[in-house]
Amino acid sequence: MDHGLVKRLRQEVGDRLAQQRRLDAAHGLPPMSGEDERQFARALIGQVLEEYARGEITAGRRPPNAEEEEALAAGVHAALFGVGRLQPLLEDPEIENIDINGCDRVFVGYADGREVMVEPVAESDEELVELIQILAAYSGLSSRPFDTANPQLDLRLPDGSRLSAVMDVTVRPALSIRRARLGKVFLSDLIGTGTFTPEVGRFLRAAVLARKNIMIAGATNAGKTTLLRAVANEIPPAERLITVERALELGLDAFPELHPNCVAFEQRLPNSEGQGAISMAELVRRSLRMNPSRVIVGEVLGDEIVTMLNAMTQGNDGSLSTIHANSSMEVFNRIATYAIQSEERLPVEATHMLIAGAIDFVVFIQKRNDYATGGRLRRYVASVREVTGCDGRVLSSEVFALGPDGVAVPAAPISCADELAEFGYDTAYDGAGAW
């Protein structure tokens, strides 16, 4: 097979597919499901091959016969939707993380906590870079460059996994993929895995239905995004959701039966001339003009925090977001750090006043190896903190804290207990750690 021709045809089909994605997004249409996109790509492949054959005839050359055309179609389809030797790793349901430090240094992390080195995924580092470039060209809403001028890359793969790659700032190209093992996840699923108790689950559901603003905090790979998905799936389907992310990852719009009116925004990077960038802060501002019932910011990492907090205090109740932090209390200082670096340059005192008026609850999730069960990795909600006011700094109360059994248990009364009771949460507290 002429691999150069396959590459050229793949690029043509990929460009048309990306254009259709942009058109769908521009018209507010839900994105195609994975299977629908593959079917549409097959139709595009047929069109491109027909155009290629006509071009060959016009130029006086022999067009591909039926057998050759079938092989070309299969090659283009595999180049678009397959990722070579990475594919078996992405299809293994037990793999949570894939870390690649050069083409032949591949490590996978399993759900039970094991870390194993596996076979190479490419013949050379150059082939690995090309594979990443293919993924960057056809994933997300717009093509993302990955080259010497753009040595960093973040995107979501078609299966929902998060990919982060770097080159030229490391000795060899490096790639990390965090698998989205639980795409359609509910609070009941996380209760079943021991992430929190049924009581915490009832509290989270009531807080969502009561339109409380919730910030989910935790370290890298603690399970923040999975918990955010589960919390968001408690939002009634009649509400209009707008999600804002650096790279599409939440995928709430992929389940129209749960969220039929959902628009996903993705940050756009500048082109090679440094033009065309659209920042997270700009997208958050734009989302407020699009009649949202709730705005969900996938992950706060910068100056978009001020825009988001302002949105929360201007009537957009029920907003959700995640943030990196080492404890529920540290969240407030983390937000203040981002705010002081923002365009507004908010001082710490002003930021704390803004936090107190915007955020209702902070949910902290963490992970650790549970050696009592053979070192299996365990993720669990360790703390829930209610914001109660501001007196120069954010005042808060830890309403759920880690108990002796390693699960979050009631630790203090909830000031908005009456509101939560309207949505089915029993808030009778006896003052001794029980409800």
Distance between the termini: 69 Å
- Please work out how many helical segments DSSP would assign: 13
Q: So what's the overall shape?
A: elongated
Kindly provide the radius of gyration, computed on alpha-carbon positions and rounded to a whole number of angstroms. 24 Å
Specify the helix fraction band: 25-40%
What order do the SSEs take from the amino end to the carboxyl end, as H and E? HHHHEEEHEEEHHEHEEHEHEHHEEEEH
Mean pLDDT: 85
Which spans of ≥5 residues are poorly predicted at pLDDT below 50? Answer: 429-435
The major sheet is characterized as:
9 strands, mixed
Briefly say what this structure is.
The protein is of the alpha/beta class and 435 residues long. The protein contains 13 helices and 15 strands. It is elongated, with a radius of gyration of 24 Å.
What does this structure look like?
With 435 residues, the protein is α/β, with parallel strands linked by helices. The chain has helices at residues 3-26, 34-58, 66-81, 87-91, 125-138, 187-192, 198-209, 224-232, 280-287, 304-312, 330-340, 348-358, 417-421, and strands at residues 95-101, 106-110, 115-118, 152-156, 162-166, 174-178, 214-218, 241-245, 262-266, 294-300, 320-324, 361-370, 376-390, 394-402, 408-410. The termini are far apart. The model is unreliable at 429-435 (pLDDT under 50).
